[in-house]
Structure formats: structure tokens, C-alpha cells
Amino acid sequence: MRQGLLKPVPRLLSIPALAAVTPAAWAAWLGWDQHYDVHPDGSVTGPYEAWQVIGLVLTLLAPVYWAASRGYVVGAVLGTTVGLTAAASYDWSDDSSGLFAVGVGMVMMGSLVVTAAVSAVIASVKRAGRRIGA
After folding, report:
1. Which of 6, 81, 114, 125 maximizes the CB count within 10 A of its CB?
2. Given this model, what pLDDT does residue 1 score?
3. DSSP assignment string, 54-65
């Protein structure tokens, strides 16, 4: 009986675990670059370079894979989405235009959709692998 009560604990702990890992990855890849690049023609880009965002995505694949391959799909999706949304909100909240909320909303929806799709694929591939190997 005791074993049955503890069974959902790892599933529940995956949510705060990924919610903690995700802002740390954000800080490592995106948190230090806060300046915009002004080009000779007057156009402005930034503050992030494409390689930084790609690095963040590839870094987050590891914890998402870890959670989804163990069947913690909800933890992978919610933890990553909450972490990215919180990190973006904190990082962009000093924007004087107020448009940071739009960007944060886009990060939230994009991370929710993408992590759900990636987690579903990982979980289904792992399940199919278990059926074939069994």
C-alpha cells in the first residue's frame, strides 16, 4: 500500500525540477546578452543571436527527453513552459513599451506547443521501443 502512495511523487517532482532547470539554462544562454546591435545602415538587431537561442533549445532537449522518456510528459511540458515563461517575464519586464507581455505570451504558447509535441514523440517512441523489445 505504501508503495502505491509514493508512485505519483516522481511525476509531480518533475514539474518543479524542470521549472528550475529551465531558467538556469535561459540565464546561461540568454541572460548575459542585454545589448542591441546597431548596424551601419541604422538597423537594430538583438539582443540575442540565433546561436544563443539554438543553444538554449538544444540544452533544454536533455531534461525534456529525460522526463518524457520516463513517462513524465506533463512534467516535461508544464515545467519547461513555466520555466521559460518566468525567465522571459523576469528578463524582459524592464521594457518601457509594455510590449514585453506580448513576447512573454508568445514564449509561453510556443514552448507549450513545441514541448508538448516533442514530449509526445519521445514518449511514443519509447513506448513503441518497449513493445518491440518485450
Report:
1. 81
2. 47
3. HHHHHHHHHHHH
